[in-house]
């Protein structure tokens, strides 16, 4: 296993520890990361509520559950995130729901600004976009795939808007939140099952 990945895993949080950290930061009117601002603290409060809500409400269909349960390869999903990241607050609870169904999948969480070398190994279009999931084979230490910062449909939506307007506006970001709320984590579940199917013959 790459030494940077190994060191990051050694100092990582569990998903439940990360949830507790976000809750604590929200109560302290603070945020993770090097930059501390009122806006980022407010996003952290919002994300604390979002993650709690998605933790209770995301549903996985029987078909999807069956495919997840059949996956038979021990993996660690190392998630790079920060408390203020809106995409992460939608994506991470769905990933945790999937991992809860299969003991072969272990979620570990690290903070982006505390792990710049790791982050720089997994850039998105040259940027430090989060949440970023690194899928690692526990037996070989090989990076099997990466996921994020957004599910596939949201990524297409963002790319189309950027191509037309050059950058994401506050109005667009609000529309994106509506998309997440309407989709209820289903695109994330579909994306991940597709990735698992590429690694194991579970989708025959």
From TrEMBL:
InterPro entries: Thioredoxin-like_sf. It holds the Pfam family Thioredoxin_9. It comes from the Bacteria. This is Thioredoxin family protein. The lineage of its organism: Bacteria, Pseudomonadati, Bacteroidota, Flavobacteriia, Flavobacteriales.
């Amino acid at each position: 296993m790459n030494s940077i990945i190994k060191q990051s895993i050694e100092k990582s949080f569990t998903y439940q520890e990360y949830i507790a950290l976000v809750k604590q930061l929200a109560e302290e009117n603070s945020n993770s990361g090097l930059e501390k601002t009122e806006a980022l603290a407010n996003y952290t409060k919002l994300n604390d509520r979002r993650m709690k809500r998605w933790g209770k409400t995301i549903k996985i269909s029987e078909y999807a559950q069956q495919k997840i349960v059949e996956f038979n390869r021990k993996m660690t999903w190392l998630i790079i995130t920060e408390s203020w990241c809106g995409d992460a607050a939608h994506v991470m609870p769905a990933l945790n729901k999937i991992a809860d169904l299969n003991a072969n999948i272990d979620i570990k969480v690290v903070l982006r600004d505390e792990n710049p070398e790791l982050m720089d190994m997994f850039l998105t279009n040259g940027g430090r976009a989060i949440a970023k999931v690194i899928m690692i084979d526990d037996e070989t230490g090989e990076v099997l795939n990466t996921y994020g910062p957004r599910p596939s449909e949201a990524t297409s939506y963002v790319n189309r808007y950027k191509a037309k307007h050059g950058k994401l506006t506050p109005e667009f970001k609000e529309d994106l939140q509506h998309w997440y709320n309407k989709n209820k984590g289903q695109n994330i579940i579909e994306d991940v099952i597709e990735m698992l199917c590429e690694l194991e013959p579970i989708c025959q």
